[in-house]
Amino acid sequence: MGKGTNVRNTTFWIADALKGGRIRFHYKDVKGILQQYSETQSVQKREQYLDRLLDHARESTPFYKNVKGKGISDFPVINKITIRNNYENFKSGDPRYKHAATVRTSGSTGTPFAVELDTRKKQRNSADTIFFGKLAGYTLGMKLYYFKIWNEINRKNPVVAFVQNIVPYDVRKLGEKEVGRTIETLQRDRSGKALLAYASVFDVFCSYLINNGIEKVDCNLKSVIAMSEQLSPSTKERIREYTGMDAISRYSNVENGIIAQQLPEGNGEFLINEASYYLEILEFDSDKPAKEGSAGRIVITDLFNYRMPMIRYDTGDIGILETRKILGEDRLVFTSIEGRRMDLLYDTSGSLVSSYVITNNMWKYLEIKQYQFIQTAEKEYLFRLNTDAPFDREQELLTEFSGYFGKDCSISIEYVKEIPLLDSGKRRKVMNTWKNP
After folding, report:
1. pLDDT averaged over every residue in the chain
2. Backbone angles phi, psi at 9, to 5 degrees
3. CB atoms within 10 A of CB 234
4. Do residues 184 and 157 make contact, with C-beta atoms less than 8 angstroms apart?
5. Which among 430, 426, 363 has a CA at the least distance from the CA of 201?
6. Local structure of 118: helix, strand or coil
7. CA–CA separation, 295 vs 79, rounded Å?
8. What are the pLDDT digits (tens) for 60-118?
9. In this structure, are residues 139 and 130 in contact, taking their beta carbons and an 8 Å threshold?
10. Is residue 240 within 8 Å of residue 209, measured between CB atoms?
C-alpha cells in the first residue's frame, strides 16, 4: 500500500470511528456473512434481515400495508413503473428512517427514476463497496480512475475528489483523441491505481489499442472493474494481454448498490451479495421461480433501505443461477448476467440467442469503430456500423451472423456516424425493437 493510499485509508477509518464506527460495523457484518456463508450465524442473520424488512414494510409503508402473509412470496413483484406510480406510498412513516439522500438514474430506457435512502442504507452501501473492492484488488484510498457520466447531480467537489483519490472522466468526452491522452496519462502516473468503468468504455479502449498497434500498457494497475454491464470474454482477454490484469465485472445499479461481482481468481461466476440483498430468479412470464440453470428475471429485495422498501424489485435484467464452489463453499452464483429483458434476441425459430453471440464475434472486424445489432422483426435484423473507411467485409459479416440466427433471416446494414450514448452513459450494442409473441 502506497503512502498516499495508507494515509487516506487510515483517515477514513478514523473519521468513521469518530462518527460511531457504523461503516466498520457493516463492513465486518458483510465480510462475516459472505465468508462464513454456511455457518449458522450467517444463515440466521440473512433470515433475520429479510424478516425484519418485511415486518417493517407492512407496518410502516402504505404500499405494503395490505399484504396479508408474512413470507416473501406473499409480496408483489414490482418494477420502476410501480414505484414511480406509487412514489409517496413507498416511503416509510417510521421516523427512525428519515430521508438522508436521493439517488437518481435515467436507466437504460432514459426514463427518470429516483429512490430515497436512509442513513443506514448509505452506510451499508459504503461497506459493500469497500468489501467488494478488496475482492477485486482495490484498497480504500488507492487512486481510482472513474469513468461514467459526471453531471451537476453527481459531480464531485475537487477537494472531495482529492481526499477520496478519485480521478473522474466523463464518458461523453471519450473520443479517439481523448482515449489516447488518457492512456498516456495512465502510463505517466506510476502510482498503484484502479480503473472503474462501464464495459463499453473498456471496449473503446481495447479498440484504440488494436487500431494503433499498441501491444502493452504499463501503468501499475492493481484493479480493473467493469460496472453495470458484464465484460465480454474477448474484452477480458484483451485487457489481460495489454495490462497483465484480470478484469472483473460488477453487477450493480444506482438505486440499490452492488448486487454481485466476479472474483479475479474465478471462472467468471458472480458472487451474490446476499449480505445486503435477497435474490430471486423468476420465470419470464410468471412469478414462479426459474429452474436452476435456466435464464430468468433478476428480482431483488433490498434488505437495508428502510426509507423506501424495495421488495421483489424486478431489475429488468436476466440471469442464470447455478451451484458452484466460490470462496471455499458451494452456493448459488450467477453464471450469466445479461441486459434488459426487452433486448433479448431470438433466432428465426423463436429460440433465445445470447447477446454474447454478438459481442464475442465482432472483434475480428477491426475496421468497425462502433456497432449496434437490432432485431426489428421476427426474422429481420439490422447492423448499424460506424467505420472510418469503406467496409469491404459486408458479405463475410452477413454470412457469419446468418449462421447464428437462421438461414432464413434477413440482416441489413446501415452506416452511421455515431452510436449514441444513453443518458446513463452506456452504449447499447444489442436492441430488440420487435415484440416477441
Report:
1. 89
2. -60, -50
3. 17
4. no
5. 426
6. coil
7. 19
8. 999 999 998 889 999 999 999 899 999 999 999 999 999 989 998 765 545 568 899 99
9. no
10. no
- Rounded to 5°, the CA angle 73-44-314 comes to 30
Coil/strand/helix, residue 193 = strand
Q: How many CB atoms lie within 10 A of CB 313?
A: 23
CB 260 within 8 A of CB 272: yes
Closest Cα partner for 146 from 227, 219, 242? 227
Query: Which amino acid is residue 166, in one-letter code?
Result: I
- Residue recorded with cell 498516499: 4
φ/ψ (deg, to 5) at 327:
55, 35
Type and span of the H or E element at 248: strand 248-253
Number of other residues whose CB lies within 10 A of the CB of residue 40? 8
What confidence score (pLDDT) does residue 437 get? 46
Alpha helices in 199-339 (DSSP H): 199-211, 233-243
The count of other CB atoms within 10 Å of the CB of residue 158 is 9
Encoded amino acid at 360, one letter: N
Helix H segments across 330-427? Answer: 356-359, 394-405
